[in-house]
Design brief:
Helix content is 65%, strand content 5%. With 150 residues, it is mainly alpha-helical. The chain has one domain (2-146).
Length: 150
């Protein structure tokens, strides 16, 4: 049993390590940001008020674009939420913090939700920063992938 767990762990590390490294370069930036720091609204230059257009920090947009190219994106992320009965940001953070490397689907589901939904719902990316979802996910991945020398 232990040998099989070790083999699975090594396979997961081999498959996702490069993507984790790509995303981890954004962790220091995300740790110092809050929701108000990463998004604002453009209301026009003149005296006439226009429709508010969300404007995002360029580093956040770079992170989202990078994340979209990784193996962490899964369009079937709602199944992870159903399977693990995730109802709140607290549930998301708790699951991420308790996850083992074999629970990579939890990371995929939660990261996918915020990255993919953010393309449709402008507040998702800001919420993920403000609620520390991105930082929790990346910190936990860093711990799982790099603190246990494989």
């Amino acid at each position: 049993m232990y040998g099989q767990e070790q083999t699975t762990r090594e396979m997961i590390i081999r498959e996702y390590r490069e993507d984790v490294e790509k995303l981890l370069k954004y962790l220091p930036w995300l740790l110092e940001k809050e929701a108000k720091d990463v998004a604002g609204y453009y209301e026009g230059d003149g005296t006439q008020k226009l429709i508010k257009i969300p404007v995002y920090d360029s580093t956040l947009l770079a992170f989202v674009k990078e994340a979209e190219k990784t193996k962490f994106m899964d369009k079937n992320y709602p199944y992870v939420y159903t399977r693990h009965r995730i109802k709140s940001c607290g549930d998301e953070r708790r699951l991420l913090q308790q996850a083992k490397i074999q629970d990579i689907d939890i990371f995929k589901g939660i990261l996918s939700k915020y990255v993919l939904e953010g393309k449709r719902k402008s507040s998702c990316w800001r919420d993920a920063v403000g609620e520390k979802i991105f930082t929790t996910a990346l910190s936990c991945l860093k711990e799982l992938f790099f603190s246990h020398a494989a």
